[in-house]
Amino acid sequence: MFFALFPRVAFAEEELHLPEVTPPSSWGEGVSIVRFFLAFLVVAGMLWGVSYLLRRYSGGSLRFSASRYMRLLDVLPLRGNLTLYILEVGKRIVVIAHTGSAVREVLELDAEDLVEQPKAESFSGYLERIFRKSSPPS
């Protein structure tokens, strides 16, 4: 009686002929997981390659801004929000202290006053030195 009152809804009585869908096999799922990890490794490798090229051709420092009149020589974070900067401005070398709300010139140096400090030993170098000492002489 319902369909007699609403003839446009009569198609609901007809059987739908849809194609059969088979679930994916377990082998196909394994392949998709492997494909995902391979794609992940490719993308991670590309990101690593781009970062390597940026570090190599930027001289080791990734600075995205440059100045024609001054150059940042060194940065030393001391505590909390206190940082010291050594800047080369023309022929002058200036030490600047920066806190959260203020920037002050601390002192001016001559180029001869700057003495490069030896690099700290890396952890792998430390382990190599320890194991070299403990190995028996041949």
Main attributes of the structure:
alpha+beta, 3 helices, four-stranded antiparallel sheet, 138 residues
List the helices and strands and how they pair.
Layout: H1 2-5, H2 26-57, E1 70-79, E2 82-89, E3 92-98, E4 103-109, H3 123-134
Antiparallel strand pairs: 1-2, 2-3, 3-4
Give an overview of the whole structure.
The structure is a single chain. This protein has a domain at 70-113. It is built from three helices and four strands; from the N terminus they run ααββββα. The protein has helices at 2-5, 26-57, 123-134; strands at 70-79, 82-89, 92-98, 103-109. A hairpin with a 2-residue loop joins strand 1 (70-79) and strand 2. The relative contact order is 0.05.
Q: Label the overall shape.
A: elongated
**Number of E-type strands:** 4
Number of contiguous helices:
3
Write down the Rg: 34 Å
The H-and-E topology, N to C, reads as HHEEEEH
Euclidean distance between termini CA atoms: 103 Å
Structural class: alpha+beta
Helix content: 25-40%
β content, as a range?
A: 15-25%
Taking the sheet with the most strands, its summary is:
4 strands, antiparallel
Mean pLDDT: 78
Low-confidence stretches: none
The largest sheet has its strands arranged as 1-2-3-4
